[in-house]
Amino acid sequence: MVPSPAEQPRALPSPAEQPRALPSPAEPPRALPSAAELLAQAHVVALPLATRFRGVVVREAVLLHGPHGWAEFSPFTEYDDAESATWLDAALRFAWEPPVPGTRDRIPVNATLPAVGPAEVEGILARFPGVRTVKVKVAERGQTLADDVARVRATRAFLGAEGRIRLDANGGWNLDEAERAAHELAPFDLEYLEQPCATVPELAELRARLHDWDLPVAADESVRKAQDPLAVARAGAADLLVLKAQPLGGTAAALRIAREVGLPVVVSSALDTSVGLAMGAELAAALPELPYDCGLGTAALLAADVTDRPLLPVDGAIEVRRVEPGPALLQRHAAEPARAAWWRERIERCLRLLAP
Questions:
Q1: Which of 118, 174, 244, 285 is at a distance of 20 to 30 A from 107, taking alpha carbons?
Q2: pLDDT band per the 50, 70, 90 thresholds, residue 29
Q3: Which residues participate in catalysis according to the annotation?
Q4: Are 166 and 294 in contact, with CB atoms under 8 Å apart?
Q5: Contacts of 290 by beta carbon, 8 Å cutoff, 6+ apart
Q6: Cβ atoms within 10 A of the Cβ of 163, count?
Q7: Are the C-beta atoms of residues 250 and 100 closer than 8 Å to each other?
Q8: Which of 280, 302, 216, 288 is nearest to 259 (CA)?
Q9: Could you give the strand order of the β-sheet that contains 133-137, starting from the edge strand earlier in sequence?
Q10: How far apart, in whole angstroms, are the C-alpha atoms of residue 356 and residue 352?
Q11: Closest CA to 110 of 293, 299, 300
Q12: pLDDT, tens digit, for every residue of 265-317?
């Protein structure tokens, strides 16, 4: 269990000094590919999931090819163009710029458990061989705290006493609900609570209420969906940050946040294909310290992937490497024409937002 930092976080730079996921005016202009060049080798895929995940049963993504290999563009369909443009920026940097050097070639990962019933827990976790940590989804709409307790109890039974359990509420609890859930679930020896509440003030207040507990609070949406990704740390509202390369604009942008924040970080994914997971692995490999198992094993939740060599957990870890899609798999899992057109138009709109 990682102890909570001191009540007063170290001083952080002012908002004007914060790193931004999108290119800032101070950065030199970039030569972006044209829409025609970008779409000429784009492949829109639709991959079935092995189990429903936050209402999703099919994961759509666009694979793009550049001078340095393949990248993924896969913001969720409900995201607007301004937010999605950051994901496109990440893909362009990954495929059109040289790789970011790293210090490790394997990344320890956690299993991710959707909001399933206790009878399904063992079957899903068996898809993550060798993992020692499980991130359990909680606060699912339409479910109760009793459902969460049953799921966590089954997870602890599967892992045994030595395994680690972290909870991810995706901001689904209000402050009082989060405090109650923390009390109810504490007997299962939790590693941390991820985004228990939606807002930074709620996270700060919850952290104050849990001051005497050895139960860290992690911020995810309060980082990747925020105009100022370091505001949550400046407010003393988190003990650690969850960093996702795609939503933050790529590996280099996420590394800038990690350097500035002065808190531990854990790298995670957004239910990517193996191509997208390769970007997360690059980020995790480049961090000077990696105190937590990373949420990069989610290819195990897919019933199909785009490569014959998917980044699946082996002995609790995934490799750090670029992923090459298989032509037959790209064809087999190609999205329907209407969906492909929707994604291609989305890329064109987002590319215009990135243009200098």
A1: 118
A2: low
A3: 137, 244
A4: no
A5: 104, 107, 108, 267, 284
A6: 18
A7: no
A8: 288
A9: 111-113, 133-137, 164-168, 190-194, 217-219, 240-244, 265-268
A10: 9
A11: 293
A12: 999 998 999 999 999 999 999 999 999 999 999 999 999 999 999 999 999 99
Whole-angstrom distance, CA of residue 152 vs CA of residue 147: 9
DSSP label of 127: T
Which of 100, 152, 134 lies closest to 285, judged by CA?
100
How is residue 322 written in tokens?
A: 């670029």
Residue type, 101: P
% residues pLDDT > 90 (the chain): 87
Two tokens at 164? 């680690």
Q: Average pLDDT, stretch 326-354?
A: 98
Q: Cα 182–186–191 angle (5° rounding)? A: 90
SS3 314: strand
CA distance linking residue 146 with residue 152, whole number of Å: 10
Do 56 and 311 form a contact (C-beta atoms < 8 A)? no
Matching residue, tokens 């679930």: 185
End-to-end CA distance of the chain: 45
Query: What CA–CA distance (Å, rounded) separates 295 from 277?
Result: 10
The sign one gets for the Cα dihedral 181, 185, 189, 195 is negative
Predicted confidence at residue 54, as pLDDT, reads 80
Domains of the chain with CATH codes: 35-99+330-354 (3.30.390.10), 100-325 (3.20.20.120)
| Phi and psi torsions of 6, nearest 5° | -60, 155
Cβ 311 vs Cβ 323: under 8 Å: yes
CA angle 147, 153, 156 (to 5 degrees): 145
Residues with Cβ within 8 Å of 299's Cβ and at least 6 positions away in sequence, in order, are 272, 273, 274, 277, 305, 310, 311, 312, 318
